[in-house]
Write a sequence for this structure.
């Protein structure tokens, strides 16, 4: 009877750590992808701005 | 200043390399020590082995909340949002380990006390700590990543919340509680546990502390990345709107 509680305690502990690590890894990957995509988009906008003809007002 | 920053970066890089293997080895030693090596407690039986994850978990949570406390003071003092990310990273790990302390305590309480939960001063004040920092994380996640005022309000909340920790620590001496009195060390020279148990407990403390520190660093990296993403998104929106 006592071994069931001991097993449950260790199982809950390691399951929670494992699930938390998986969630953290998924969020890190998602954010890294978003940062890469935004950096690409920013570089494109800067390239477009450099290529656009400049109007000079006098 | 740049030398200090360099030193901090060096220590951070070193921890990043050392922590995962230390945590892995210590945690494996802890599991073997707790389930095989440590002697069986004569009154409580095998369920007492839950102490080897229960007690180090709450110490890891206290450590995480101490980091939240210091980082929150720096947020208020310097208004640096990088420290807000550190506070959020540590608070998440603190909440996780407080939750695990409550869960393992409940699973120990059922066979020993006959109930999973009782409104004892130690248990209730620990539940309050869990709820305070869960509320902190919830409130901070609802505000914008780059909102400095929200970070300041959250920092004040986190500092006030830390006042619950001494209350938890002294609750067993201030009030008559069901929770056991401090048993690991009654005094510096008179441990209340056999040396075999103390040794396993020290290894468990090392393993769980290293694991908590590693998780807190990972979580802080995530928060920094989220802030970078929010800054980039704002820049792209400005460029596309212009």
């Amino acid at each position: 009877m006592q071994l069931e509680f001991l097993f449950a305690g260790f199982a809950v502990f390691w399951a929670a750590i494992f699930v938390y690590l998986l969630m953290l890894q998924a969020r890190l990957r998602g954010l890294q992808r978003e940062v890469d995509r935004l950096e690409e988009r920013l570089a494109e906008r800067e390239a477009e701005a450099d290529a656009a003809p400049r109007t000079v007002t006098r | 200043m740049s030398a200090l920053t360099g030193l901090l970066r060096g220590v951070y890089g070193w921890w990043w390399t050392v922590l995962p293997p230390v945590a892995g080895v210590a945690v494996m030693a802890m599991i073997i020590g707790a389930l095989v090596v440590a002697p069986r407690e004569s009154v409580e039986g095998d369920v007492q082995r839950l102490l080897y994850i229960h007690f180090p978990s709450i110490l890891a949570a206290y450590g995480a909340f101490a980091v939240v406390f210091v980082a929150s003071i720096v947020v208020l003092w310097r208004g640096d949002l990088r420290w807000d990310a550190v506070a959020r990273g540590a608070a998440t790990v603190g909440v996780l380990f407080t939750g695990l302390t409550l869960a393992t305590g409940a699973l120990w309480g059922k066979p020993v006390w006959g109930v999973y939960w009782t409104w004892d001063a130690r248990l209730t004040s620990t539940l309050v700590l869990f709820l305070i920092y869960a509320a902190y994380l919830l409130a901070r996640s609802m505000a914008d990543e780059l909102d400095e005022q929200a970070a300041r309000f959250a920092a004040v909340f986190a500092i006030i919340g830390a006042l619950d920790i001494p209350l938890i620590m002294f609750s067993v001496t201030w009030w008559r509680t069901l929770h056991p009195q401090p048993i690991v060390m009654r005094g510096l020279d008179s441990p209340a546990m056999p040396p075999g148990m103390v040794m396993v407990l020290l290894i468990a403390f090392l393993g769980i502390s290293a694991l908590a520190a590693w998780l807190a660093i990972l979580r802080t990296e995530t928060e920094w990345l989220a802030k970078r993403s929010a800054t980039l998104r704002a820049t792209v929106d400005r460029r596309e709107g212009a």
